[in-house]
Amino acid sequence: MDNKTLNRILKMKNMIFDNLMESYLPFPIDKKYYSSWTDKLPRDGDTVIYTSYMYQISGILKKYEKLFPKISNVNVPKRLMGLSKFLIKPGESEIKRSFSIMNNIVNILQKNHINFGYLYDDEPYSGAILLESGFLKEFMEYGNKLNDFFKSRGIKRIITLDPHTTNALKRLKTMINFDIDVKNYIELINFNGSGEYVIHDSCLYSRAMDMYGLIRDKINKSGIKIDEDYLTTSKDMGTCCGGPLSLISVNDSDEIARLRSEKLLKINNNVLVMCPLCYQNLSPHVENIKDLAEVIS
Amino acid sequence: MNYEWNVSIDKAILNNAPNVNKILEENPYIKETAKELRSKKLEVLGNIDFYIDKTEESVKRSGGHFHFAKDSSDAMEIVREIVKNNKNIVLSKSNVLYEIKLREELSKLGKDVWETDLGEYLVQINNDMPSHLIAPAIHLSKEKISKLLNKNLDKSINENTSVEDMVKAVRKFLMEKYLASEVGITGANAISADTGSVLLIENEGNIRMDTVLPGIHIAITGIDKIVPTLKDAFNEVIVQASYAGFYPPTYINVTSGPSATGDIELQKVSPATGPREFHLIVIDNGRKEAINSDLRESLLCIRCGRCYFSCPAYKYYGKDFGDSPYTGPTGIMWSAVTAKKYDKSLLCMHSGGCKEVCPMDINIPEIIEKIKFRETG
Ligand code: SF4
Description:
The complex is a heterodimer of chains A (297) and B (377). Chain A is of the alpha/beta class. Chain A folds into 2 domains: 3-187, no CATH class; 192-295, 3-Layer(aba) Sandwich (Rossmann fold), CATH 3.40.50. Chain A contains 15 helices and 8 strands. Chain A has helices at 3-23, 31-34, 54-74, 78-81, 92-111, 128-132, 136-152, 163-175, 185-188, 203-208, 212-222, 230-233, 250-265, 276-282, 292-295, and strands at 47-50, 117-118, 157-160, 181-184, 196-199, 225-226, 270-273, 288-291. Chain B is α/β, with parallel strands linked by helices and 377 residues long. Chain B folds into 2 domains: 34-285, 3-Layer(aba) Sandwich (Rossmann fold), CATH 3.40.50; 290-376, Orthogonal Bundle (Fumarate Reductase Iron-sulfur Protein, Chain B, domain 2). Chain B has helices at residues 3-26, 29-46, 48-61, 72-83, 95-99, 102-108, 118-125, 142-152, 163-180, 206-212, 230-244, 287-291, 312-317, 328-339, 353-357, 364-376, and strands at residues 65-69, 88-91, 112-115, 183-186, 190-192, 197-202, 216-222, 226-227, 251-255, 277-283, 322-323, 326-327. In chain B, the strands form 3 sheets. In chain B, strands 1-10-7-4-2-3 form a 6-stranded parallel sheet, sandwiched between helices. In chain B, strands 8-5-6-9 form a 4-stranded mixed sheet, with helices on both faces. In chain B, helix 2 (29-46) crosses helix 11 (230-244) and helix 14 (328-339) packs across helix 16 (364-376). Chain B is globular. At the A-B interface, helix 1, helix 10 and helix 13 of A face helix 1, helix 13, helix 15 and helix 16 of B. The complex binds iron/sulfur cluster. Residues 243, 301-307, 329-330, 357-360, 362, 364 of chain B line the site of iron/sulfur cluster (SF4).
């Protein structure tokens, strides 16, 4: 790894960490806008649905990743980062899609008789990016702040929507005194669906959190048909979409996504994902790609 | 993306992964054995000094020489003392030999040193480094190999030469080297502390030659290869071979001291037909420090190479994911342990397939996360 890349990563670490400690966000985003996908849920509650803004901002993460080297080169003062050109907005259709995914998850959870509130624009980001980049000290420090925040709001149970947030909170339990119950929405629901797909598993769901079997069982029962191939979709051999690599190299990340897509498309033209970042990474190479929460009810 | 590498790695995965699965399904005892082995290796890691001492006693009891090397230069110093003026040396594939830069150092002394594993021989004549723990030349296509052999071995070899004929030409060349060799240097797949035996597993037959034909056999390996008993050592080589896709292995070599005979009035006389001297060098080189750190479980690795094929970073970057010879998911751990090199860990995507297939149940992604932390913390 050349020094330039390492310096960039270290600068990025400091920038993200400072932002998180100051504002609970890794970089400036319009919280009001991103939490406007619902107004029907009670504010707060001892159980809350927790987006960590992942579905909402997944479409702009790549743009931020491309921007990071520039920001770290010119040392943009933090107060300016909230302004104009640094505040990237996703496209209209992208944001509509993410809002409808989250609303569908809410509907299915409610159909499964699960009640919960939402923190709206008070919602903090999980810190997953720190954990996944190996910034463990910062992750734990921010984790403590997050823990205090959730506790101060009387939260006892968190329902997560995406693998990165779920994994970050579950790992916090093993690293600090984080004793809030964390459940991913897929664990909590039974659902119906149709169609035939090849699954691109989230690495975190299927292997890090050992949910491969649970997800297969639920999807099989739903009426969705899954096409499998040991070398491409098994727990042992299925591989990453390349997403996490984009902080190091956007080009390599894209190339890995392309190669992964090629393998998936040999099995079925319809690809099913369960993570907003997998969706972003694979969708340039796969025409018919859907998130699980878009095809179930 | 290197197209040639992409094709080679896909072929290797297709040939290896389903085959390993079949071996494990047909022989359910192997997974059980792997579990037992893990607990035995953990026991050694928890008492490493005791087991090093026990190995020393056992090697000496069987008439061999035992050496402990704290690092690479220490190990090379010991090798130079043993080799002395002997010139002709044959080697068998071992990552520890790369770790201490043995071939390079011996060549500098003017020795005639040859790798005898076919893949390693190809890597040697290509002035290259291995791309995989047990398949060092998977990055080389048949066409590239034919060119290498044409340039370095036999002008009659070209891209139309069959693989069989290429292997035959190398065999003929290496046979001359075996017969002329004075020293055979190998690694070890396992060492039993109770008997001081070195176990080596292979399919080509070259290790048999390396360990029997020269007058001196030197085995060099890490302290992580020590297991409590000879039974555990057999378990280790069987598990390693199975997860590497070779079951049953063609040869398991056991060496406990120099050759000996008791055929005349049951009086033990050494040497007999095989080597007159046997040396075991066990090397620390960062391993003890790792045992006492959050990298401890790295040392459970038996180097079967299975994790490579479940890793998107290795599939994409090849041997650039790591620092050869330690590449792939396990290579990230071994580079951290033996060279304190951490930077390539940043290429890991934590896909996690490595953990799923590892016979030693090492939580490789979590260890790599800690290595990342060493780089960026
Ligand atoms: S880490 Fe596990 S799978 Fe990889 S080479 Fe070592 S023992 Fe084999």
